Amino acid sequence: MRAVLARRSPGVEAHRGSAERIPLPDASADAIFVGDAFHWFDGPAAVGEIARVLRPRGGVALVWNNWWSDGEDGTADSLVPPLPSAARALLADVYVSSGRAAARVEKADPLQVFAETLFDPLVAETFVRSRELSGGEVVDLYTTVSSVASLPAQERELLRRALGRLVEGTYRLRVTSVLQWTRRG
């Protein structure tokens, strides 16, 4: 992602780092923005680093684009019409074999780590939109979820082709974007 940023925005300064080790000096940032990723962080370490690099009253914005969730079978989504059962079965198999299904059971609320810290209580705002997608666009979208994206390239391509044969027509996708924000005290 850093390489894409550097290529598309050559004037932007990009650093190698992680949420747990932000390569910035103390109190040097006015805001931190995280898009669809906070659940992958070591929450306590990330919140500590965010607090370290933010100036007092600096802001944190966490954005989530919810269209897919870890439902009972790991493939709950907001598609209308629903995916064909054969496509759903292929995705469910990958969800289980990737280890994500097992990890779901152990997953705690990633935002709980903001409680009792230097941050004000989180504020949540919700925005809902719908979009019409072709079968090919649905397949493209599903190949971005972590269980599929983590497959070796050849397996991912085989899955993409199999899904492409099964997912036809048009779909309506409902996306609920949630902005959760706070300020450092």
Describe this protein's structure.
This protein is α+β, with helices and mostly antiparallel strands and 185 residues long. It has a single domain (2-183), classed as Rossmann fold (3-Layer(aba) Sandwich), CATH 3.40.50. It has seven helices and seven strands. It has helices at residues 2-8, 43-53, 85-97, 100-106, 135-142, 146-149, 153-166; strands spanning 29-35, 54-66, 68-69, 76-77, 79-80, 123-134, 170-183. Strands 1, 2, 5, 6 and 7 form a five-stranded mixed sheet that branches. Strands 3-4 form a two-stranded antiparallel sheet. A hairpin with a 6-residue loop joins strand 3 and strand 4.
Strand content: 25-35%
- According to CATH, the fold-level topology is Rossmann fold
Rg over C-alpha atoms, rounded to the nearest angstrom? 19 Å
Q: How many helices?
A: 7
By CATH, the architecture is named 3-Layer(aba) Sandwich
User: Which consecutive residue ranges, at least 5 long each, have pLDDT under 50?
Assistant: none
